[in-house]
Design brief:
The structure holds 3 protein chains of 3 kinds.
Chain A (H helix, E strand, L loop, with lengths): L3 H13 L13 H4 L14 E4 L4 H16 L4 E4 L5 H9 L5 E5 H9 L7 H11 L4 E3 L9 E6 H7 L15 E4 L10 H8 L4 E4 L6 H9 L4 E5 L4 H4 L2 E3 L12 E6 L4 H13 L4 H10 L5 H11 L4
Parallel strand pairs in A: 1-2, 6-7, 6-8
Antiparallel strand pairs in A: 3-10, 4-10, 5-8, 5-9
Helix pairs in contact in A: 3-11, 3-13, 5-6
Chain B lengths: L1 H41 L1 H15 L3 H12 L6 H25 L3 H9 L4 H32 L11 H10 L2 H29 L16
Helix pairs in contact in B: 1-2, 1-4, 1-6, 1-8, 2-4, 3-4, 4-6, 5-6, 6-8, 7-8
Chain C lengths: L1 H11 L10 H33 L3 H13 L2 H12 L4 H24 L4 H8 L4 H31 L12 H10 L2 H33 L19
Helix pairs in contact in C: 1-9, 2-5, 2-7, 3-5, 4-5, 5-7, 6-7, 7-9, 8-9
The chains are: A alpha/beta, B mainly alpha, C mainly alpha.
Chain lengths: 310, 220, 236
Amino acid sequence: MNHPHLLIPLALSAALGLAACGGGDPLASPSATDAPASSAPAASADPIVIGSQDYYSNEIVAEIYAQALEAEGYEVERQFRIGQREAYLPEIEAGSIDLFPEYSGPLLQYWQGETDARLTDDVYTELQEAVPEGLRVLAQSDATDQDSYVVTREFADEWGLEKVSDLEKVTTPLTLGANSEAETRPNGPRGLMDKYGIEVGFTPIEDGGGPLTVKALKDGDIQLAIIYTADPSIATNDLVSLEDDGGLFLASHLVPVASEDVDDNAAAIIDAVSEAMAPEELVELNARSVEEQAPAADIARDWLEQEDMA
Amino acid sequence: MTWLTGNWPQVLELLVGHLVLTVPAVGLSVLLALPLGRLAWRLPRVGGPLLAAATLLYAVPALPLLIVIPVLIGTPLRSSATMIAALTVYGVALLVRSVVDGFGAVDRGVRDAAVAVGHSPTGMLWRVDLPLALPVILAGVRVVTVSTVGLVTIGALIGVPSLGSLLTDGFQRGIVAEVVTGVVVTVALALILDAALVLAGKALTPWAARRARGPVVVSR
Amino acid sequence: MSLLSEAWAWLAVEGRWSGPAGIPARTAQHLAVTGVAVLLGAVVAVPAGILVGHARRGAGWVAALMGGARAVPSLGLLTLFGLWLGIGVEAPLLTLAVLAVPSLLAGVYSGFLAIDEAIPQAARAVGLSPGQVVVLVELPLALPVIVGGLRAATLQVVATATLAAYTSDYGLGRYLFAGLKTRDYAQMLAGSLIVIALALALELLLAALQRAARRVADPAHTSDPSGRRPSRKDHP
């Protein structure tokens, strides 16, 4: 797993040798520039570096990949909780992360920009074409986790809201709460304006549709929030996820992004994981994290045992 | 408590990660602050501006510093090197003043006597100045250690794992016990390291046992 | 250094300097949060510091508080208060007020202790009430050290106020978090530079205030110009 004893001299030498390496790219990954090849464990091949978003649900999936590979004798290195897409994709493209759980729709939008694809298979087909050189997407899973606009049950009843387009009926000002990156992404206020002609204010809340966002909804500080469909808090807080009738959100299936360092055998292991994951499965995994407060490693291990992949 | 029983291995791992960032930062701070402080003490004309610069440096907020450092020295943003460099900046900024104060507190009569009995300049440093300045310098090292332990948590915001990861993760998942654990373990770690430094200080300066004083620093 | 010029370009974009999300508005928010938080902290710290300092008791207690408080991660307090109070400025204000207390308290307390014990005794001897001793004698004499505490507290708060944007839409930290999440380095760097400039400006202002306070407390300039308490070791 981790090698703190390797890190100490490494960190020291890195800190002491700082002046020598000015002008480097600060966005490059630490493993690309920090770690000399000799620091890798004495295995035949380099370990597969697995990353995850700074999002507990994504970390669980990354941990499942890691344990599934370890069960088959692969050596893996975990670089979890890195940040959002704009933060980690450059590191993947630079080749310093080998495997990353992604979501087909948002990933396609990141690489392609505007696209007309909305349905599961269209998105996946386009995604395969949009992948930069040196990378590939493995088979997509049936499991989905996608953005959705959410309101409280009370607010939905008050204005008769079922679909996003129903928001037209609301005559009071609307404020959308979401992670700050939504302000510039197509899923935020811009998309609402372009696709639905609905104008909303924006309040950044940095917990990824977590408890603070839910609290803000309930307190009435915001009326509309972006919460992922796999988030168990939608059910536990009796929130209403509005149907995206204007096709703003792309189908968003779990899909692994892999570098060339992930060999065919390893890819087959990950494909088996994706295959085994049922459409609503992420909600259950997430519920274990939020409600049972179980660590990602335990949730991953239990799931793999249940699927006979441990 | 249920959260802790299920997650203590992770807490332990993050605690180690926290130490791996804290210890090199404090060590580097001491290594850099000693010669700088000695210089500032011996040459007041250099020392004045140096101390003023240190005070200004300490005024730089942590999150911005973490973001500026990669630009200045070329380390990757998400790396322990960036974290350690930032912590070292604060450590040096705080410690230089302690070192100057420490050397300044050495009794002039003692120094004159040491020169009179034939100590060389190097001998003066190692056998007279440093040992006598040690209690004051150590008080500074204690302050630096404690505040460094607290500062390391900010690294979680740029993707460098530490006990601070418990704060951000607990926040996202809405697990109050996880956040509280993060706060409590961080403070406990700081107090343990502080106690260890007090013990080390007592071992190093047995003659000062009766004059021990706490690290109350009012103005930086 | 191309990033610095990008940051510069970010700052120069038209519209950046006006409107509710513009730099002046954010800076004003940042200063307001800082000021109110220090004020809130002072409401607790100043009376407590006067009580402890006037009685000349509780040295160990204050030292322990300072030591422990230094290690409390503000990020942790902020998330706890955030989960409790929701979005809005309350959670960061409370966190920053807590952050300000130890430095303010220690400033008042050490300021009182630094006064020669004979002076308040003499004031009592000529018939001043305890309240008059505090207001007319001890507070003016302690002023430079108290302002020193204010300076330390203000700097800690203005620096840490960047974290406010983690749970609310306040202050200059917004640029840092928005930039951090989307790896918009120019925005992060530009935001950082504004915060650093603000902190340095406040530091210079408060240093001047401290010098002024020193003139008030000691018009004849008899004490050590550094403002620090003369160490006993200085005496032969």
